[in-house]
Write a structure and sequence with these properties.
Layout lengths: L2 H15 L1 H24 L9 H32 L1 H6 L5 H32 L6 H28 L3 H27 L4 H12 L3 H12 L11 H7 L2 H28 L4
Length: 274
């Protein structure tokens, strides 16, 4: 058995015994019920596109899931650093790569299981009460799973960077506020300083520097609702739905997963932050 999987199993056992995972399960169930119920209640058979209600539900996921993921991952790693557990890991014949990947898997799998159970229970219960649009339910489930995946690597990186739980909480909250609340306003302010010929290019590039925007824009495009962006973003919609645009979204998503993990491995190798 590989060292990564041994660490992942240990982390999963800890997670499934903890109370925070139960609280997350209840959160996922609630989010799933709201998402599935509202998308079915507000959609019609004549229109399958992206409605304002769906936009509101997407924003709820974009608001809650990054905050939850960043806090959990960063506080777990920072807490282990405070308690000396990470230094203890380094005394074992475990490579930094195995340690970081094991931590990531040990957190991701319990979160994915709870999310799947939450949406599964909501889907089964609501299917007895009303006609359920399975495609939209699966879409919102995948959106939630992608958000957790993108932010989990970043959360571990924050944890390895910080010296204590308190520092981790502060940086996590600031990072969440930047990605979810401030980033969009900063980009909009920037567009007022640019000539009109450069606005679409800047908006296009800005999407890939924020995982929240990657998920938001990618979700709208995946639901074939590019008209939601308006006529001024027509060229962007055409490019983003082309093969090159899809590849760009995939590469950006992989970068947000892999780059924080690789730097976390580097930090563990150096040992200065343990």
């Amino acid at each position: 058995m590989s060292a990564s999987w041994m660490i992942a199993r240990y982390e999963m056992k800890r997670a499934f015994r903890s109370r925070w995972l139960l609280l997350l399960f209840l959160l996922f169930v609630s989010l799933a019920f709201i998402s599935i119920f509202m998308t079915n209640a507000t959609s019609t058979a004549q229109y399958d596109g992206f409605t304002r209600q769906m936009a509101s539900l997407l924003n709820v996921s974009l608001f809650i899931l990054p905050l939850m993921t960043i806090l959990i991952g960063s506080m777990l790693v920072a807490g282990e650093k405070e308690d000396g557990q990470l230094l203890l890991y380094r005394t074992y014949p475990i490579s930094p790569t195995a340690l970081v990947i094991g931590k990531w898997l040990g957190l991701f799998l319990p979160l994915a299981v709870m999310l799947t159970l939450g949406y599964g229970i909501a889907l089964v219960v609501l299917s007895f009460l009303m006609p359920v649009r399975l495609g939209l339910a699966v879409a919102f489930y995948l959106i939630a799973l992608l958000l957790i995946t993108l932010f989990l690597s970043f959360s571990l990186w924050v944890g390895y960077r910080m010296k204590s739980r308190l520092h981790a909480i502060g940086v996590s909250l600031f990072s969440w506020a930047f990605f979810v609340l401030f980033y969009e306003f900063l980009i909009i302010a920037l567009t007022f300083l640019l000539p009109s010929t450069q606005i679409v290019m800047v908006l296009t590039v800005s999407v890939f520097f924020n995982p929240v925007e990657i998920v938001r824009v990618g979700s709208i495009l995946a639901l074939e609702s590019g008209t939601f962006f308006g006529p001024s973003m027509y060229d962007f919609t055409i490019w983003a739905t082309s093969l090159f645009g899809i590849i760009a979204f995939v590469i950006a998503s992989l970068a947000w997963i892999l780059v924080p993990l690789l730097d976390s491995i580097r930090l563990v190798k150096k040992g200065n932050h343990l």
